Amino acid sequence: MARKSLGISAGLLSLAFLLGGCAISDVELWPPTPGTSTEEIYVSLDTWHAMIAFPQKNLRDHHHFSDMPGLKTPAAEQPAFEEWGYAERAWYLNGRQGLSDILRALFWPTDGVVEIAAYNQVWADRTPQPPSDLFIFRISQEGYQRLRRHLRSTIISSDPIETVRNSRFFRAARPYHLFHHCHQYVALALQEAGLPISTFWAFNRSA
Description:
Elements: E1 2-6, H1 10-19, E2 38-45, E3 50-55, H2 56-59, E4 81-88, H3 89-93, H4 99-107, E5 112-119, H5 123-126, E6 133-140, H6 141-153, E7 162-164, E8 167-171, H7 182-192
Parallel strand pairs: 1-6
Antiparallel strand pairs: 2-3, 2-6, 3-4, 4-5, 5-8, 7-8
Helix pairs in contact: 6-7
């Protein structure tokens, strides 16, 4: 697993390529003004999946984001990271993973689910489908708030439809298809934080 801690660096160009190619950053948000308060986020990419994670210790400093019933656990029991991802409901939760299901998931808009996971390792460290990359960003406070608000808006209801181990799944506001899947979900979230990421070519880890 490759780990890349990013401010403004060649690593950011790598992530821009992996998630979508060239784009212009929001200059009001990125890069953070030197000397101002920032927040750390983690972006995991493996062969087929992408997720974005937040250290739990940072979330406890932003009580106004704790707005989802069922997500709160006692501080002593909280794993190190809260992680967000996106998937097709039938494929991921109903086990419909045949050839016809691949075609359905890619070429016909179907129900999507947002996964909110709580683990002591980020996805890049626990994925069953390596190789993986982990990108670590420090973003501005305003970028962080916009990112959190955006992620919350991707969920229709705060009531989970299913719980699998340390992951809770929620109905997604947008359907799943070839032009809106996990990599584009993460790319859109990073755009909200002001990062120079495009969704145009965000089809997989190597696209």
